[in-house]
Design goal:
Layout (H helix, E strand, L loop, with lengths): L8 H9 L26 H8 L6 H30 L14 H15 L4 H9 L1 H22 L9 H9 L9 H23 L8 H19 L1 H7 L2 H18 L1 H6 L22 H25 L3
Helix pairs in contact: 4-5, 5-6, 6-11, 6-13, 8-9, 9-10, 9-13, 11-13
Length: about 325
Amino acid sequence: MNHPNQPNIIEKFKLWWHGDLDLSEHLQDGSRQLPIKNTKPGHEYDSYLKEAPKGISLLEIRSFERIYQIFAVATCVILIGVLLWAVSYLPAFGAPYSPDTNEVYLRYINSGIQETGAINYVAGMILDYRAFDTLGESHVLFTAICCVFIMLRIDDNETWDDELSHQLETEHLLDLPQDPILKYTAAVLLPAIILFGIYIILNGHLSPGGGFSGGAIIGAGLILFNLAYGSETAGRFFTPRLFKTVSLCALGFYSIAKCYSFFTGANHLESHIPLGTPGNILSSGLILPLNIAVGLVVACTMYGFYCMFKKGNF
């Protein structure tokens, strides 16, 4: 039975639901385990309640958890039902003349080369018609690496354990620069990997590829360079200052280059930037430099994730 001055379980649940009640403060020593006693099955809660202090009992906390689980399952079931209901209205797979979906892709196919100058229809779509969406994806990557920096950062007034510091300084457990097979194999593969990534980025408006795939290839090459030659050697080339500069310039250029279309819609105003001859390397207007910007952001993000999760720093 609740104390007269204590809210009942429903009121406590409402407070917890709105974030006004911290249940952990009402547990003794942070323990969530029931005391084990020689009682009949089902009487553990009763024995605990008799000894529990006034406030929130473990039984009430377990009740909150069960209600939360019920809400979670109900939400998932409702979401699945809504998605299945939406899918039921989609046209049949491969239907060529669906009245609800043919307007957009016919515009891309019939007018894509003329309006974007890109032979690769996908590049023309994501970097011209849907440039705002791609900008958001690039900022998601930048935001993700910022979150990793925040979660794994070490403040100036914090210090590592002596044994852990020694491991990080020697890097015998974290790097493989002493392996001659990896080192010489990387020396052969690295130039090809980096050049192939650059080719994928620069050729993205003419053939399958672009900034995302080319940036991922370059990022993989940087990770291989770090593995083969060690963090100290790689750190001389790829520094936090370089990461910040490249990310800022790439995202800033993308935002400035396409800001006019953010306010004028898909059929944006004429940018007066020549589209060139479709099929040439210097064509498609802003799509080529935008591919380069996206590739730089992706490469920096991939390598930054590796460095942060490996050591907690560059």
